[in-house]
Amino acid sequence: MSKILVDTIDTRSGTSNITIGSSNASQITLKSGATLTNFPASTPAFEAYQSANTNISDSTNTKVECNTEVFDTDNCYDNTTNYRFTPNVAGKYFFYGAAQGYGGQLSGIESLDVKIFKNGSQVRAFSHNYSNNFSYVQHSNFHLTIDMNGSSDYVEFYVNFNAVGTPRLNGSSTGDHCYWGGYKLA
Q1: What is the DSSP string of 120-144?
Q2: Cα(68)–Cα(77) distance, rounded to whole angstroms?
Q3: Count helices and strands in the chain by DSSP H and E runs
Q4: Is the whole model's pTM more than 0.85, yes or no?
Q5: How far from 183 is each of 72, 86, 88, 106, 172, CA to CA, in Å?
Q6: pLDDT tens, 139-160?
Q7: Domain extent for 170
Q8: In the 8-state DSSP scheme, what is residue 77?
Q9: From residue 170, how far is each of 71, 78, 91, 92, 101 by CA, in Å?
Q10: Which of 54, 108, 117, 186 has minimal CB crowding within 10 Å?
Q11: Secondary structure letter of residue 39 according to DSSP
């Protein structure tokens, strides 16, 4: 095995790419404890959850007010007023989350839709229909990728569900009922 001892590896004048290994190279090994620097970060990123139960209107798009932040790396999530994520870096973002609906003790949930809006318009709906199997509590989740411009684009999380009783979004102090998050793909 050969060893090269250098302080800096750089490109020659007029080029901008450095290739390590040939077409048959399949692994690069670093020493134990090595730190890689100057790689793109997966930020801005956030995760937030709804901390208390909220009664909502039946069959109406309702914004999920996730008021408790688990983390918010660049202060891009508004957890007090608009409950929206407005990233300050352009790129593709991965979003995920879930909502738990409660349809009432003597009735049930017929359908529970979780929806993602970008700049006030719906971009995706994840529909779950339970009309043949009513349940008092239903949990629906989502995940998707959205392009964001890094200045004015914002994303919001909505639900719309139809219940025989009074619909409610379940909140919790541990964040495991209604939550969402997102991060920039590196």
Answers
A1: TEEEEEEEEE-TTS-BSEEEEEEEE
A2: 10
A3: 0, 12
A4: no
A5: 10, 11, 12, 40, 23
A6: 788 999 999 999 999 999 999 9
A7: 45-184
A8: B
A9: 21, 20, 32, 30, 6
A10: 186
A11: P
